[in-house]
Design a protein that fits this description.
heterodimer, A: mainly beta, 7-stranded mixed sheet, 4-stranded antiparallel sheet, 0% helix, B: 111 residues
């Protein structure tokens, strides 16, 4: 089946620094990647949809300058949390969709900003 | 009103019990429906898609009522390993293949 590899699984960073999260589709081409954020005991909230070779589409209320998304190839999408603050601490998950396998999720990145 | 609403639980049940939980969605144009399972600090994993005619996969049965905008999940003969958070997930349509997640229902199966 389709596999999405997400790295890192956990990261702790200092306030004000930037963190990059990568999602790679290992055995298929992901023209679209969805990025979600999940706070404790809350639902996954869609942050943005990235499309290979074009600008990402951000959901209402998500700052595009703070959460930079790059989808430069059919197998790699990245999310960079810029100038991270403690309130950005969350679980970030990517997901790709294929006609054959439906939605496939990365294993998630737990970000802690101290 | 939230797009997808679920009873957060927790549902505490003994092994072998039958447990049911429900979900409602607000967008009548929603096109597809799923139940996902999420274990603590892990990614969601697809449990089953939900079809209008209802569908069953082993001990798990899902029902969809489009008129009432209501989805249900029934688990028979609960196992300890069924303990997890169950997410009701809806594709609201309108293009883009987005998914909208409920906040989840916590199930705890105890021996």
């Amino acid at each position: 089946g389709a596999v999405v590899s997400q790295h890192p699984s956990r990261v702790i960073c200092k306030s004000g620094t930037s963190v990059k999260i990568e999602c790679r589709s290992l055995d298929f081409q992901a023209t679209t990647m969805f990025w979600y954020r999940q706070f404790p005991k809350k639902s996954l909230m869609l942050m943005a949809t990235s499309n290979e070779g074009s600008k990402a589409t951000y959901e209402q209320g998500v700052e595009k300058d703070k959460f930079l998304i790059n989808h430069a190839s059919l197998t790699l999408s990245t999310l960079t949390v810029t100038s991270a603050h403690p309130e950005d601490s969350s679980f970030y998950i990517c997901s790709a969709r294929t006609d054959t396998y439906g939605y496939t999720f990365g294993s998630g990145t737990r970000l802690t900003v101290v | 009103r939230k797009e997808v609403e679920q009873d957060p639980g927790p549902f505490n049940v003994p092994e072998g019990a039958t447990v049911a939980f429900n979900c409602t969605y607000s967008n009548s144009a929603s096109q597809s429906f799923f139940w996902y399972r999420q274990d603590c600090r892990k990614e969601p994993k697809l449990l089953m898609s939900v079809y209008s005619s209802g569908n069953e996969d082993g001990r798990f049965t899902a029902q969809l009522n489009r008129a009432s905008q209501y989805i249900s999940q029934l688990i028979r003969d609960s196992k300890l390993s069924d303990s997890a958070t169950y997410l009701c997930v809806v594709n609201p349509g309108g293009g883009g293949n987005k998914l909208v997640f409920g906040a989840g229902t916590i199930l705890r199966v105890k021996s």
